[in-house]
UniProtKB/TrEMBL annotation:
One of its GO terms (molecular function) is helicase activity. Residues 45-60 have a biased composition (Basic and acidic residues). Residues 127-212 form the ATP-dependent RecD2 DNA helicase-like helix-hairpin-helix domain. SUPFAM superfamilies: P-loop containing nucleoside triphosphate hydrolases. CDD domains: SF1_C_RecD. Residues 28-44 have a biased composition (Low complexity). It comes from the Bacteria. Pfam families: HHH_RecD2, UvrD_C_2. Keywords: ATP-binding, Helicase, Hydrolase, Nucleotide-binding. This is DNA helicase RecD. Residues 605-653 form the UvrD-like helicase C-terminal domain. Residues 1-70 are annotated as: Disordered. The keyword Nucleotide-binding applies.
């Protein structure tokens, strides 16, 4: 990918600096008293252990690039020397050679156990850190958060390298520069700064969805951060093991240059993202290759396919003989994975489905008329699902993952690793919605790679709303006939009028004209900040719908909230009460207790959400607010996602004028740099279906 790479996270940069705001969440465990945050941390711990094992598997230097010459060969030699421990990387910037593809390893089977909650940093460690922070002019209020990131020895870490402060979420390079200058008198040409800013830029890129960055794009970004020797900074980060470097062929083998070497691009990535993507490719290849026999007689599969309606028959036939199948379609198309689940159960298979969040879980459970539906996070943590077999694999023959565009590479890797040999995996979702909050574009990459059968639903979403959303999906914003006021456009001139009309719609107009009460109406706006962001809208809506002093960390019983147990997952809910344990919420029909110290970083008011927070949910009525100052945030996927959250009624508070149709017609999703298609190519042949 040769374009300039954006490292701006979803929604806005401001959103990324505030934890717990990005996307649809997961629910509190119903078993073993495992909280949502604990379950997520358990899954993350397993992911880190897996990465450490994969690092240990790397035996010796990369055995490729023998024909390279010049600076490319020099950099390869440097990387080899670093890997062998002989010496640091030489001062040269060039292209690294690719590692040969390894055969897909047998997955390590693990049984996720209920993990203890996050260990609070020692009081002494926090005090030591607070002292160092004050000495360097940093706010002492971040001491607890910094201790959680840097560990009990965080004070010594910062004394040795003050730019490690960049590892604390929300800290920017200019702030770390001031801290380093005050603490040690260190200047911007310090080698430690270059390495730390390299890692920070890759972390920002991961927040924006990239698993790797093109070397040239990374060097350019370092230049914008005033790193004096940007190329050398990248080499130093590689030498220290802070980041990984890859070389991928560009195009097919027929594109070789005159000297016989094919064109390549050099990519740099964080270890956790890069190795998760490799693990995902290996796991997908294993699934594709492992289904050799059909469960149940072939005639039984065919009978089930014949009896199914529409595209459901094609989906059942595809799953009968393949280990990996993709299914695309909107909300109405969920009837087809539901038909597959029922058919597979009828054949005696062990079947589970997993949705992005509890709202999707409840909706799909209604379609399949039974149990066997979980959330993805609950499935991986062990809080929900079928349990694990003796080898630690999920006890399933078929897993259907809904909301597949929301899978980032780390989550998708855990899903594939958790499946036993011979199991089938169906990834189903709407390709028009916003991509995952985490790094990668797994579903889109698989659709483009064509390594498995793809079944496109022919079942459109019904009514004027379905017609409107279908048009947006193909880049057209057409007027639709809405005799039942299914779609209403409310023009506004400025931000103040936008806030006023939004509150009026939620509190009065929609309940009176449409019959949907305020508690079932959701406001969606492009960002958290600004004159018509979620903060302003939530304050205005609280004043009308649940006025109160905010006695419990800014919240009152009855407040609608958006709870994020971990960054990137958001769970809509409502405040029930507060006591010594913390704030009690009702989220998706379950009780969640948010400890007092977690309220500020993980809880927002939730009458108004961003589109990323709303993914995976639907409401009877939705009010989408498009102020004039939000033009830069608009894109076709954003509009598609926001509009498609409505079941019965959509009001659009419209101040963006021609920017809205222009965004729908001309602004696709921001590109993400990933390696999944390249990693799959040598392992899985392209399919026709």
């Amino acid at each position: 990918m040769e374009h300039a790479v954006s490292t701006e996270p979803p929604e806005t940069a401001e959103d990324a600096e505030e934890p717990g705001t990005s996307a649809e969440g997961t629910e509190v465990s119903e078993a073993a008293q495992v909280s949502e945050a604990e379950a997520e941390l358990a899954a993350q711990r397993l992911e880190r252990e897996r990465i450490e094992r994969r690092k240990a598997e790397r035996q010796g230097p990369i055995e490729a690039g023998g024909k390279l010459s010049g600076t490319a060969a020099d950099l390869l030699a440097a990387v080899r020397a670093v890997e062998s421990g002989e010496k640091p990387a030489v001062a040269v910037f060039a292209e690294a050679a690719p590692a040969p593809r390894r055969p897909a390893p047998e997955p390590v089977r693990r049984v996720p156990a209920a993990a203890p909650g996050p260990v609070a940093p020692a009081a002494g460690a926090v005090e030591d850190l607070r002292g160092v922070l004050v000495q360097g002019g940093a706010p002492e209020g971040i001491a607890v958060q910094a201790a959680g990131v840097l560990g009990d020895g965080g004070a010594d870490v910062l004394r040795a390298d003050p730019w490690q402060l960049l590892r604390v979420p929300g800290v920017r390079p200019e702030q770390a520069d001031g801290f380093a200058r005050a603490l040690l008198g260190a200047g911007p040409d310090d080698e430690r700064r270059g390495r730390a800013v390299t890692v920070w830029l890759l972390e920002q890129a991961a927040l924006a969805g990239h698993t790797v960055l093109d070397m040239a794009a990374l060097v350019a970004a370092l230049g914008r951060q005033k790193v004096p020797e940007a190329e050398e900074a990248v080499q130093n980060a590689i030498a220290e093991g802070d980041v990984l470097v890859f070389q991928d062929a560009v195009g097919d083998a027929g594109g070789a240059e005159e000297d016989g070497e094919p064109p390549v691009r050099v990519l740099v990535g964080l270890e956790r993202c890069a190795l998760a993507e490799e693990s995902l490719a290996d796991g997908l290849a294993r699934l594709v290759d492992s289904v050799t026999a059909q469960d149940g007689a072939g005639e039984e599969w065919e009978r089930a396919a014949v009896s199914a309606e529409g595209s459901a028959g094609g989906l059942i036939r595809a799953v009968a003989g393949h280990g990996l199948v993709l299914h695309t379609g909107g909300e109405a198309s969920l009837a087809e994975p539901a038909a597959l689940v029922r058919a597979a159960r009828g054949l005696g298979l062990r079947v589970w489905a997993a949705a992005h969040g509890p709202v999707g879980r409840a909706r799909f459970a209604g379609l399949v008329e039974g149990t066997g539906v979980a959330t993805v996070a609950g499935l991986l943590s062990g809080a929900e699902g079928p349990g694990r077999d003796a080898d630690g694999a999920l006890d399933v023959d078929l897993l259907v993952v809904l909301d597949a565009p929301q899978l980032d590479v780390e989550t998708a890797a855990l899903v594939t690793e958790s499946l036993p040999d011979g199991a089938r995996l169906v990834l189903a979702g709407d390709p028009g919605v916003l991509w995952s909050a985490g790094p990668g574009r797994v579903f889109a990459d698989l659709l483009a790679a064509r390594v498995c059968p793809q079944v496109a639903s022919r079942r459109p979403d019904p009514g004027p709303l379905g017609e409107l959303v279908s048009g947006v999906g193909v880049g057209e914003l057409n007027p639709v006939a809405a005799p039942g006021k299914e779609v209403v456009i409310v023009p506004v001139r400025d931000a103040g009028e936008a806030v006023h009309r939004t509150v009026q719609l939620v509190v009065d107009s929609v309940p009176r004209a449409i019959g949907v009460p305020a508690e079932e109406t959701q406001v969606i706006t492009p960002g958290h900040g600004g004159a018509v962001g979620t903060r302003v809208l939530n304050a205005a809506l609280k004043e009308r719908l649940n006025p109160g002093p905010g006695r419990f960390g800014g919240f009152d019983p009855g407040d609608r909230v958006a709870y994020s147990p971990v960054p990137g997952r958001t769970l809509p809910g409502r405040v029930v009460r507060a006591d010594g344990e913390g704030l009690h919420l009702e989220c998706g029909g379950e009780e969640v207790v948010v400890p007092r110290e977690r309220v500020e970083p993980s809880l927002r008011h939730g009458w108004a959400l961003t589109a990323h927070q709303a993914v995976g949910c639907r409401w009877p009525a939705v009010v989408v607010v498009l102020p004039g100052d939000a033009v830069q945030a608009l894109s076709r996927p954003w509009v598609y996602t926001a509009f498609s959250r409505a079941d019965r009624h959509l009001s659009v508070v419209h101040g963006a004028e021609q920017a809205l149709p222009r965004a729908v017609a001309e602004v696709p999703a921001k590109p993400r740099t990933t390696r999944l298609p390249v990693l799959l190519a040598p392992q899985v042949p392209v399919t026709e279906g």
